[in-house]
């Protein structure tokens, strides 16, 4: 599966007054990203509405394994309704306290020991490095629990997403870290059909796909015009994955699921 980055606007929640529903909207983004193994979520600031801090904290909270939340997230107004977010249940979120040798977990280092979600702290195996804060570990012993610190990039399964923030969509697109084939999504884009999918498969020849989404009130073209730029100058494909939509609008979280489904089936 190719790695996927998604670009979403800071105005994701702009039309929602109820804070609980705002939290649920962000939770839908977190769930969709996890279901389709998105590696990176970039929040770009939209001048029409900036809810970056709220969106970022909720996304990071949702992605955090339950046993690490108390270490990483102090009481916050943004997290008041975080409980409404459905659990992600990704491989990095253990569903049980029992462990097996060779299993991977995320942990929080405390001296020479680490909290990996057990009733007792696990010992860090000597010679595997000393790090502070959050680490990824492999279980080397069960009784007593012992682990070795490993590189998250070596994990053979989906290990969650990263969250980054950029000052504008234009700057996000010009970011050197944005390594991959960019695809714009728009209701005015080319309808995805068999012929277009063949073209996209030839276009997406790198390891990473970058999917860009507009805001609830403005499309990508309008957002880029804030910085006196346009989609045309980039030359990226512009696609519409919802043919003959039956509603006046397609919400971002709905467009996200539809687009990631196409990528999962045909572009991976």
TrEMBL record:
CDD domains: HsC9orf114-like. It comes from the Archaea. SUPFAM superfamilies: alpha/beta knot. This is Protein containing DUF171. It comes from Candidatus Syntropharchaeum caldarium.
């Amino acid at each position: 599966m190719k790695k996927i980055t998604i670009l979403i606007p800071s105005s994701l929640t702009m039309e929602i007054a109820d804070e609980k529903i705002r939290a649920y909207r962000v939770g839908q983004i977190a769930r969709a990203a996890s279901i389709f193994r998105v590696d990176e979520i970039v929040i770009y600031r939209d001048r029409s509405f900036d809810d970056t801090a709220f969106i970022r904290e909720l996304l990071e909270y949702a992605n955090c394994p339950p046993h690490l939340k108390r270490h990483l997230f102090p009481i916050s107004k943004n997290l008041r309704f975080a409980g409404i977010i459905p659990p992600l249940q990704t491989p990095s979120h253990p569903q049980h306290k029992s462990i097996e040798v060779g299993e991977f977990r995320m942990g929080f280092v405390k001296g020479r020991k680490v909290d990996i979600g057990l009733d007792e702290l696990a010992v860090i195996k000597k010679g595997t490095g000393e790090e502070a804060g959050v680490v990824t570990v492999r279980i080397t012993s069960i009784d007593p629990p012992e682990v070795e610190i490993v590189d998250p990039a070596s994990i053979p399964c989906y290990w969650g997403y990263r969250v980054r923030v950029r000052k504008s969509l234009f700057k996000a697109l010009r970011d050197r870290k944005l390594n991959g084939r960019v695809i714009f999504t728009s209701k005015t884009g080319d309808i995805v059909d068999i012929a277009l999918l063949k073209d996209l498969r030839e276009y997406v020849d790198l390891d990473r796909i970058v999917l860009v989404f507009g805001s609830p009130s403005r499309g990508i073209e309008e957002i880029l015009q804030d910085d006196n730029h346009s989609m045309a100058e980039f030359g990226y494909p512009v696609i519409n994955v919802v043919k003959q939509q039956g509603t006046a609008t397609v919400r971002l979280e709905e467009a996200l699921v539809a687009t990631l489904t196409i990528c999962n089936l045909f572009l991976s």
